[in-house]
Write a structure and sequence with these properties.
The complex is a heterodimer of chains A (about 325) and B (about 300).
Chain A: H1 5-9, H2 13-18, H3 26-32, H4 38-61, H5 66-71, H6 83-129, H7 135-144, H8 150-163, H9 171-177, H10 181-194, H11 197-205, H12 210-221, H13 223-238, H14 242-247, H15 256-270, H16 278-299, H17 301-313
Helix pairs in contact in A: 4-16, 6-9, 6-10, 6-13, 6-15, 6-16, 10-13, 10-17, 13-17, 15-16
Chain B: H1 2-13, H2 15-22, H3 26-55, E1 58-61, E2 65-68, H4 72-79, H5 81-113, H6 120-128, H7 135-146, H8 152-159, H9 173-197, H10 202-210, H11 215-243, H12 247-252, H13 266-275, H14 280-310
Antiparallel strand pairs in B: 1-2
Helix pairs in contact in B: 3-14, 5-9, 5-11, 5-13, 6-9, 7-9, 9-11, 11-14, 13-14
The chains are: A mainly alpha (about 325), B mainly alpha (about 300).
Chain lengths: ~325, ~300
């Protein structure tokens, strides 16, 4: 919440409308400037309030002690704000296990996202720019796999990983996250459009090898699509709960999602005495875990929006 | 930003194979680009699927150990009232939540695209932000907001002398879950639809306006048909998402243990079979069965939607 407002509100609306729009729509935008609708804006601001309400609650609540969480009004600050105490306690509770979780989440999700994006880029480029036997069949097979529910896969994957001793290691989280059928689909469409055949031909005539062409020319042209895949895989792994829940049982290996839920069930379930301040930790920890992704999405919005635009159009 | 670092850090590591690949015929390069992805795909998608299928044909017995039982587990699954209850519940959830979410996403995308909004960018990003929030955090937040003793809604209605809404009671739970999921994913679907709208050529609108079409007519006759493929995509993802509903009920379980039992959704049932019931084989059959239900349902949805277009 605190992080979402600054970058957006600091920009006046007219400038916002003018910047970052694709050239095709510029004419439309210009035409419609000057007949803005106030009633529609008010309705949409009410809608916006609904979407920001829980995050506002989270930001307000992270300044409260567990006692104030129960006694003061939920949507406003209490008399004794203590954000820094809460942050400090969250980060140091149980020998700083929360920092471990945060670091694990960053490692798992950044590793998976970069790996998945590169694999998807190479394969998408291969499918888009080369004709070979089984090309279409392989692509269709992967697309069909989008329909397999990940959770239906997770339990058998767990059983397989248990056989090869991969359970309870970081690989158990990263390896399944490296395969992104949606990423492949997006990169294939993106590569078909963004990498002109004539450029490839020119590079071949100059004697460049295929892998060199990919690394020096294609990857650069694929950059916006790559950022999109990186971001969405990052979110998927960062927010993943089911897979780490079943794969890991060492708290030191937990990502932040599983860690927070274990704190939450202590806070709700334990009830008596021992974990009296747990709820404040859960709330503050939640806020800390939300901030990095929200910031990443806001900073990189130009990239992922154009990447999604390419994917949303031609199917 | 990230992409450039990807490109630069990856080059030295690939220096070895590059030399080899450079000499290859162009024809071999395609499969080689595709191979790393496909190998992992086989290992991470097809192998577990095959293994689940294999496991589902066996049973652990006290006498005789691991025994081949054919389709017995599937017959048990078909007759299992707990599984049926879970599947029916997620189907119900799908019917309530998905139309609501997609209609909202569509309306928001059309509003954003109409050019009539002030602060359009703020509104667009604000509605999208929940997508970046982990479902664990989303459910914890809403779970707290729903609280009948200390949640702000309960506090407000107490102050106003109104009856306290019991969001976590048996009758409300499915709606409360639908609200959490809607909150998380409306923005994502809206962005996909909005991105698709942005690519409709402006000339179409201008031509329609010239012919006297108002904004509503343009939305109905030009924008909606243009959104078809994107709508199908979001619908497909929503079918898959709702049938494997797990995180939200699992996380609300500690605060509403009487309402959400271990078979509340089909997926929760498969999970508890494998991890608390130790019935690995039956759990594999249930997962496989659920996957089948999802595939059939997805195709049914796609088929109905396509037929309606053709007729």
């Amino acid at each position: 919440m605190t992080t979402t407002t600054p970058p957006t509100t600091s920009r006046p609306a007219p400038r916002a409308a003018a910047s970052g729009t694709p050239p095709t729509s510029r004419g439309r935008r210009r035409r419609s400037v000057g007949r803005r609708s106030t009633p529609l804006t008010i309705v949409m601001l009410a809608v916006l309030a609904y979407f920001l309400l829980p995050l506002f609650w989270l930001a307000v609540s992270s300044t409260k002690s567990t006692q104030d969480l129960f006694t003061s009004f939920g949507l406003w600050f209490s008399h004794a704000p203590q954000l820094l105490e809460n942050v400090h306690e969250t980060l140091t509770h149980d020998d700083g296990v929360f920092l471990h979780w945060l670091l694990n989440t960053v490692l798992y999700s950044v590793g998976s996202a970069l790996g998945a994006a590169l694999l998807a880029a190479a394969a998408g480029y291969g499918f888009a720019k080369y004709r070979f036997r089984g090309n279409n069949a392989a692509f269709a097979l992967v697309l069909g796999a989008v329909m397999i529910p990940t959770t239906a896969l997770a339990i058998p994957t767990y059983l397989l990983f248990a056989k090869v001793d991969l359970v309870n290691t970081p690989w158990a989280i990263v390896l399944p996250s490296l395969v992104s059928p949606f990423g492949l689909y997006l990169m294939r469409i993106y590569a078909a459009d963004a990498v002109p055949d004539s450029l490839l031909e020119a590079a071949r005539i100059d004697g460049a090898g295929e892998l060199r062409i990919f690394c020096t020319i294609a990857l650069r042209l694929l950059a916006p699509g790559l950022v999109t895949v990186v971001l969405f895989t990052l979110v998927a792994t960062w927010n993943n709960y089911f897979l780490p829940l079943i794969m890991l049982n060492d708290p030191k290996l937990y990502p932040v999602t599983v860690g927070l839920s274990s704190w939450a069930s202590q806070a709700f379930g334990g009830g008596s005495g021992a974990n009296s301040n747990m709820l404040a930790l859960v709330v503050t920890g939640s806020l800390i875990s939300v901030i990095p992704l929200v910031v990443a999405f806001l900073l990189l919005q130009r990239y992922w929006q154009s990447g999604l635009a390419a994917g949303g159009v031609k199917q | 930003m990230t992409a450039t670092t990807v490109a630069s850090t990856e080059e030295p590591r690939r220096a070895g194979p590059r030399r080899r690949l450079g000499g290859l015929r162009q024809g071999a390069a395609g499969p080689l680009f595709v191979a790393p992805f496909m190998v992992l795909f086989l290992l991470m998608f097809l192998a577990p699927l095959g293994y689940a299928a294999y496991l589902s044909l066996f049973q652990q017995r006290l006498i005789g150990g691991n025994t081949f039982v054919g389709l017995d587990n599937y017959l048990t699954a078909l007759k299992d009232p707990l599984l049926r209850e879970g599947v029916v519940r997620v189907a119900e959830f799908f019917l309530i939540q998905v139309p609501l979410m997609l209609v909202l996403a569509l309306v928001f995308a059309l509003a954003l695209d109409s050019g009539l909004l002030r602060l359009a960018r703020v509104i667009r990003l604000g509605i999208f932000v929940p997508y970046a929030v982990p479902s664990v955090v989303a459910t914890l937040m809403w779970g707290y907001l729903y609280g009948p003793d200390f949640g702000p809604f309960a506090q407000l209605s107490q102050k106003l002398g109104l009856p306290v809404p019991h969001f976590l009671s048996d009758g409300w739970m499915l709606g409360s879950l639908a609200n959490v999921v809607t909150w998380e994913f409306v923005g994502y679907n809206m962005i996909i639809l909005y991105a698709a709208l942005r690519t409709v050529p402006t000339e179409l609108y201008e031509a329609a306006a010239m012919d006297g079409a108002g904004p509503w007519r343009i939305a109905w006759s030009i924008k909606l048909p243009a959104l078809r493929p994107a709508l199908m995509l979001t619908l497909l993802f929503s079918v898959i998402g709702s049938f494997q509903l797990f995180n939200e009920p699992k996380l609300l379980q500690p605060i509403a243990p009487d309402v959400i039992d271990n078979s509340y959704t089909a997926n929760l049932y498969a999970y508890s079979l494998a991890f608390t019931g130790q019935q690995v084989n039956y759990s594999a059959a249930v997962s496989f069965f659920l996957g089948l239900v999802i595939v059939i349902f997805s195709y049914a949805v796609l088929f109905t939607a396509n037929r309606r277009r053709n007729s």
